[in-house]
Amino acid sequence: MDRPRSYVIVIALALSSGACASTGATPRPFPTPAPSPAPAHPAPATAPRSGTPAPTGTAIGYSITGTALKLRGTPYRNGGSDPTGFDCSGFVRYVFAQHGVTVPRKVTEQYRAGHDVPAAQLEPGDLVFFTTVAPGASHVGIALGGDTFVHAPSTTGEVRIERLSAPYWSTRFVGARRVL
Predict the structure, then answer these.
(1) Cα distances (angstroms) measured from residue 121 to each of 77, 141, 147, 160, 166
(2) Is the confidence at residue 32, as pLDDT, over 80?
(3) Does 99 qualify as catalytic in the annotation?
(4) What is the number of structural domains in the chain?
(5) Is 41 marked active-site?
(6) What is the bridge-based pairing of β-strands 148-151 and 139-145?
(7) pTM for this one?
(8) Domain at 156, CATH number
């Protein structure tokens, strides 16, 4: 499935990095919440049996997105990294840690973790990065599948689902990484 041409152009510009949104700066204009779309992916076919290796790739991606979705509505808290409140990178780190996956704490470090993923090949659990408060990657979310991602969006927000194709996000998309 092809992504809109604008994603290709934006990805070509995704070679820089910047400060974490957890610096306290609030991006302007920040989008207002929209109704939360349902994730565009089916549940995994089967769960691993006891004694089998932990799921990898897409299977663990579904588990990670499930954990992230359970945290919808959690308030934003600058520097937050637990269910009492999250900033964007603290949210990502916490969700992945619940599955035994360690990711760095800061957006700029998360942007260097794992490997690049073209927007057309995003899978559930991939990290998606945006430029919001500084040039380069300054905000991060977790891809859910299809056109959606979940994130902790700002000092006035809460963990919620957004569309990658929304004008605010599509024009600020700088790249994606797979850490699984």
Answers:
(1) 31, 16, 11, 22, 18
(2) no
(3) no
(4) 1
(5) no
(6) antiparallel
(7) 0.72
(8) 3.90.1720.10
